[in-house]
DNA sequence: CGATTCGTTGACATGCTTCAAACTTCGTGG
DNA sequence: CCACGAAGTTTGAAGCATGTCAACGAATCG
């Protein structure tokens, strides 16, 4: 809250985008004047508040400064499918329909601070390759999720999930071996296509194997190598139902 | 536009992009000269040829004129995961990494004719919203796939898959009730996260139920309503493991 | 301090994978 | 043109991973 005293130039104070090659605000927004606009549209939300909902008009995307976000959509049956979790430094809200409507909903998992990038303020060059690069991250994430859901068993999914979280925390300067799960078991299950009970059981089993220590939402990874090994393993023991790729000469 | 007069070029002969509001070449490419380039880079490939491979440099994206394409990636285990199938009128090849490398491979499922859009030839406005709109389609597809994999059982996945194909053929002027599966059972399994045997069995069962008629790769849908009903059904009978969404007041 | 949500654990049911084998189609070379 | 093998498809039997149901304990909240 003390930071707000100097918020006339808050953009410079934020280092969350450093792994992206510097503040996105400076990269994407046109003028100094507009960059200050960015500061003014910074949002702080408490746990459980929606940033946007599926179907709403999309006039901006966001960067997580602190906290975490759950992205999800609702099926015809009125149930939710979690599409991903966003940690500090992540960009979200770029998945919109052709008509600029939200294709998913986003909700805070804890007290969360966001940077808001209104489409209207984006500079010309922002419309181009820079933005496409960010959508590339989203597509990469989607591919990974598809891969997990289609090819991995419960153990592999949970292990991949934890490994992914660890890597992302690590890349942002946090500990890769000990962190907090900001989402519920339910959320994890909805994300990985598993029942809550399976999530719980798998975590317990991992703990019994000495791979990690888990207490409610606190996780400490003890054997990252083993975790990675499980994460990389495909669904079945022997040859899977899927095709082993033959590399044809070009 | 004045291109209607110039009949000697391929661009105006192609009507595949009509549901998209007219030829993408006319929409995205800068000058008449470049549009002719587009014609020159039209490709025809026989079955089983790669359009591009994961990791290659990406300098263009494509539109399917005729034929069909399978998009896939290879896991650490050296096996493939199918990400989608592209039919005439579909755009593919937009999913590239930040550094403009291919995030997936694309291979023809039959003799296929493509329209090639080199990034270098794209006009300024093409870099902006137009292109983002097309990536939106891709994200929508990814979301649907995630939904299928995480929430639907074998019946639901196969039914959704067939319904999706039918709709896409329909929207392009082909029959929605009778069409050819250009991909193998293996491909379908790799796409839906199912074993080949499950795909085969499910199709047979659907046939026995009078929902459709299937003979090798020829499919005729007899009861589209029932198919849709199965497609929309979630994995389990009673309440699923996933959360039923409660609509909080905004 | 109840009420509610969340997390854990056990017993059981089942849908899908796996394994095995036969059949069909297709391509290729004799 | 036929013979032959490779690949694709179908069907059956059996095992197992995961979902389902149920109950309990722990944490959170008003």
Q: What does it look like?
A:
The structure is a homodimer of 250-residue chains. By secondary structure, chain A is α+β, with helices and mostly antiparallel strands. In chain A, 38% of the residues lie in helices and 20% in strands. Chain A is built from 8 helices and 11 strands. Chain A has helices at 10-13, 24-28, 32-40, 124-151, 154-171, 185-192, 196-208, 224-232, and strands at 43-45, 50-52, 60-66, 69-74, 80-86, 91-92, 105-108, 112-118, 178-180, 212-215, 218-221. In chain A, a hairpin with a 5-residue loop joins strand 4 (69-74) and strand 5 (80-86). In chain A, helix 5 (154-171) packs across helix 8 (224-232) and helix 6 (185-192) packs across helix 7 (196-208). The model of chain A is unreliable at 1-12 and 237-241 (pLDDT under 50). The interface between A and B is large, with 60 and 61 residues. Chain A binds a DNA duplex (30 and 30 nucleotides) through residues 153-154, 184-186, 194-201, 203-204, 216, 235-241.
Give a quick set of tags describing it.
homodimer, 250 residues, alpha+beta, 4-stranded antiparallel β-sheet, 11 strands, 38% helix, globular, DNA-binding
């Amino acid at each position: 809250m003390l930071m707000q005293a100097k918020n006339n130039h808050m953009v410079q104070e934020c280092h969350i985008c450093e792994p992206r090659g510097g503040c996105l605000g400076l990269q994407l927004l046109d003028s100094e004047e507009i960059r200050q606009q960015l500061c003014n549209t910074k949002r702080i939300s408490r746990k459980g508040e929606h940033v946007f909902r599926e179907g709403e008009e999309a006039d901006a995307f966001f960067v997580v400064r602190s906290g975490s976000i759950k992205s999800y959509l609702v099926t015809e049956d009125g149930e939710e499918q979690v599409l991903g979790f966003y940690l500090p430094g992540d960009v979200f809200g770029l998945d919109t329909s052709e008509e600029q409507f939200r294709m998913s909903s986003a909700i805070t998992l804890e007290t969360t601070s966001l940077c808001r990038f209104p489409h209207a303020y984006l500079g010309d060059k922002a419309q181009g390759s820079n933005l496409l690069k960010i959508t590339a991250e989203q597509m990469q994430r989607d591919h990974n999720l598809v891969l997990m859901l289609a090819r991995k068993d419960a153990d592999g999914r949970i292990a991949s999930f934890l490994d992914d979280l660890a890597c992302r925390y690590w890349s942002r300067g946090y500990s890769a071996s000990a962190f907090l799960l900001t989402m519920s078991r339910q959320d994890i299950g909805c994300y990985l296509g598993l029942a809550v009970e399976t999530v719980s059981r798998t975590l317990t089993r991992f703990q019994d194997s000495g791979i990690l220590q888990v207490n409610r939402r606190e996780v400490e990874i003890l054997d990252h190598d083993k975790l990675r090994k499980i994460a990389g393993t495909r669904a079945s023991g022997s040859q899977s139902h899927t095709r082993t790729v033959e590399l044809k000469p070009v």
